[in-house]
Write a structure and sequence with these properties.
Strand order of the largest sheet: 10-9-8-11-12-14-13-15-16
CATH superfamily of the largest domain: Vaccinia Virus protein VP39
Radius of gyration: 20 Å
Strand content: 25-35%
CATH architecture of the largest domain: 3-Layer(aba) Sandwich
Shape: globular
Structural class: alpha/beta
Number of strands: 16
Length: about 350
């Protein structure tokens, strides 16, 4: 997913806070959709949603640039119209001069997600034994491991590594943001070549810096600007044995006719950035393009879908057909028929 980096900003540069109140009767799913506008489309460096003292919802987003009110309203408008909420309460205010980004980073402990160990610059302790370390700061382009969509992708890759006898040789991280998924794939499959693509040049610069910081060779993890599969490098390097796409449900559906053909016959597809109630529509779009669901991983309100090309065959051992649901670090499993 795409975001805007704070790395090129002075730690004491001007920061801004956007906030909006939402009525208490809204579901957490509706609130998450509003928050997603700030974290994804508006490229905030941090977001939060809490119930305020009057039991209504309060969404806050931190920016390292001055967001234009009209742009915020244009992007929020369709979501607010859908849930019948006015944007009159939107506030955008400058914050006092403090090192807010450092304080924000310090509030994020290192994360252990399967074998992955995701940590920021403020973490000084060594990585656990046998872990796969990833150095990504929380206030960078989207993707620091803290969001369930990123966590779902990291877990999905490890599931694929366990289930697949053949390691992927070519891997694409579409909508790479910080490139956390591409770097994780490089750790899991050391012989693979990675392509990290994003339509935001700033995100691509952040991704390239993260690749360098994690001591991954740039010829192994290439970071390029591409609007979907329009980029020549992205098209030329396919087909891919694994395609990772942690974006939003709408763009994922629209991308299906291009993404599936760029996946090799025995390849894997990991889709995320999907609210639970959007999962079936995304799965259908990819089924129509020639893919089939292998597994779903649900973390809170978010679903990560693991798919394969239908052309891989119908041998029962190739298909898992189950849904994994994580609750407080415990994973439960249901078969396709239980859905």
């Amino acid at each position: 997913m795409t975001g805007i980096s704070s790395d090129h900003q002075d730690n004491n540069s001007d920061l801004y806070k956007a906030s909006i109140g939402l009525p208490a009767h809204l579901s957490s799913v509706a609130v998450a959709q509003v928050e997603l506008v700030f974290s994804e489309l508006l490229a905030s460096v941090a977001t939060s949603h809490v119930r305020s003292s009057d039991q209504g919802w309060q969404i806050e987003a931190l920016f390292d640039f001055a967001p234009e009110r009209q742009v915020v309203l244009e992007l929020l408008g369709p979501v607010l119209d859908q849930i019948e909420v006015s944007a009159d309460g939107l506030q955008i205010l400058p914050l006092e001069q403090r090192d807010w980004l450092a304080e924000n980073r310090a509030s994020f402990p290192a994360l252990r997600i399967g074998r992955m160990w995701v940590y920021g610059s403020h973490i000084t302790s060594p990585p656990p034994a046998a872990s796969l370390p990833l150095h990504v700061d929380a206030a960078q382009a989207f993707g620091s491991g803290t969001h369930p969509t990123t966590e779902g992708c990291l877990l999905a890759m490890q599931m694929i590594a366990t289930a697949s006898r053949k390691a992927p040789k070519r891997i694409l991280d579409m909508g790479c943001g910080s490139a956390i998924l591409a770097m994780a794939a490089a750790r899991i499959w050391p012989a693979a070549h990675l392509m990290a693509a994003d339509n935001d040049p700033v995100a691509v610069r952040v991704a390239a810096e993260n690749v360098r910081r994690n001591r991954l060779a740039p010829h192994r993890v290439r970071c390029v600007v591409s609007n979907g599969f329009d980029g020549r490098d992205v098209r030329r390097d396919g087909p891919y044995d694994l395609v990772l796409a942690n974006i939003l449900a709408g763009p994922l559906r629209r991308m299906a006719p291009a993404l599936v053909p760029h996946t090799s016959r025995h390849g894997w597809i990991v889709l995320s950035g999907i609210l639970n109630e959007q999962a079936n529509a995304v799965e259908r779009a990819y089924a129509m393009a020639g893919a089939r669901c292998w597994s779903m991983l649900r973390i809170g309100e978010w679903t990560t879908i693991v798919m394969r090309r239908s052309a891989v065959g119908t041998i029962p051992g190739l298909w898992q057909s189950q849904t994994l649901i994580r609750h407080d670090n415990a994973i439960s499993m249901t078969g396709a028929g239980d859905e």
